Amino acid sequence: MHLSWIDYAIVLVYVGGTIVAGTLARGAIKGISDFLVAGRGLKTHMAVATMVSTGLGLVTVMYMAEEGYKYGFVPFIFGIMALITAMIIGRTGFIVSRLRYLQVMTVPEFYQLKYTRGVRLLGGIILTLAGTLNMGLFPILGSKFVVGFTGLDKEYVNFVMVAMLIIVVFYTLMGGMVSVVLTDFAQFVLLALGFFFGTYIIFNHPQLGWDNMVQAVQLHKGDLGFDPIANPGYGISMILFLFCVGLVGVVWQPEMMRPLSAESPKVARRVFWISAATVMGRAMVPMFWGIAALTYFGDPNLDPHYAMPEMLSKILPIGIAGLLMAGMFAAFMSTHDSYLLAWSGVIVRDVVSPIKSMLTKSTGERAEDGTWGGLSSEREIYWVRAIVVILAAFLAIFGALYQLPETAFRFMYVTGSIYFSGAVGTIVLGLYWKKANTPGAYAALVLGALVPLNFLIMTENQELVPAFLLPLVENSNLVGLTSFVIGGLAMLIVALLTQRSHPPRPLDFSDME
User: Fold this and answer.
1) pLDDT in tens, 19-74
2) If you write DSSP's letter for every residue of 183-234 in order, what string do you get?
3) Contact 416, 127 (CB under 8 A)
4) Maximum pairwise Cα distance, the chain
5) Counting Cβ atoms within 10 Å, is residue 508 exposed (0-12), middle (13-18) or buried (19+)?
6) Tens digit of each residue's pLDDT (9 = 90 or more) over 450-478
7) What is the rounded (10 degree) CA torsion for 261, 267, 273, 277?
């Protein structure tokens, strides 16, 4: 075991405080709006803190560190593209201001406002599929960090994963988004301290430091460890894909829940503008830690999921190690609670409730309490909590059994593209192009999702793939770009062909601040 009793005490105090906060937040839940979007009352400082905490989960630290370990300094381009796109969104309010103005709680609710209840149902199903698959590796990667950092035997990784999931599920069930926001602020502070001290010690460690890390990358990766365009794992296609994801990825439900929880469209836009200052560091610091692990151990063939946390545990002093451990556990919780709440909310509000509404022949209009005629606010909360438990059980099974075909980073972005690609046509064009209509929305959702879905299937059955389709198996960057193009073109072409038979439903943003 690498940690002292002082380090474990720090972690236990944080976990205990989190459970108490989640329990106390239960009394603040009066309806589904409180449970999913914190009553839409978040001020700028709180919204920024909770958004940064969600964006920097432990899984993010793990897959970004893996990229640094495997590709050297090349992945830093991700942080640069994230900064550029976050600044664009923060400056213009692209997508976020208009969705907040419409007062939706989940992204697929927009589909019913702009298109039809059927589009919302299909969009909810696709988003649920993409989101659940995307989240499949979160628990196991978090567990690997704990095992590597504490020095536990690797055979305990699944047991640690289950224990961490139980803690997260408990406090998420208690207070929903209210408990998430309350604890995210504390997590934001812990993460900032952990990142600062961890990076400072790496810079000043005799075996590490900037010069030694540059030399290690040159030794193990050569010039390809520094050039993102020449590196075959990145290239122009990856840079373009990262730019598209940065702009369209804002519709990802866990991320969108923060601006949707803001008190106004203006605050929603400001949240992105301020958080833009952190996005580059949130990517580059874990990558830097991955490079440090490569430098420390000097073996590029080690599993970076264990190498990075083990390196940190060996170089951090007592107390600082406990602080970082608490911060990483906070990062685990901040992402999992938000994602579990986001996907369970989508399943209930955008799949179960519309089906119930159809069966009861409800008009499907939105009520004052935010419901849509399928389930009452109380029943929605009940089912959201039940599905949180079901999702957590699925994640435990998936994490224990699934074997990655590529790095975790590529898996996250390909699974996310199942939804992002359709969102280009349905949401981006739906918000900014007056001719976007229902047939175009169906085409964008279905065709956009097919490319990344085929990729995931083909990678498991490459012997059955025709030769002309092999590029879509070997290059995940190409898969992402192709799906974005198809999703956008599907809306443009089909909508133009069906304007007379299916006139678009207009949206009015004339009085938006």
Assistant:
1) 676 566 555 444 444 444 444 445 555 556 666 666 667 788 888 899 999 999 99
2) HHHHHHHHHHHHHHHHHHHHHH-TT-HHHHHHHHHHHHHGGGGT-TTT-TTS
3) no
4) 71
5) exposed
6) 877 777 777 666 666 666 666 666 666 77
7) -60
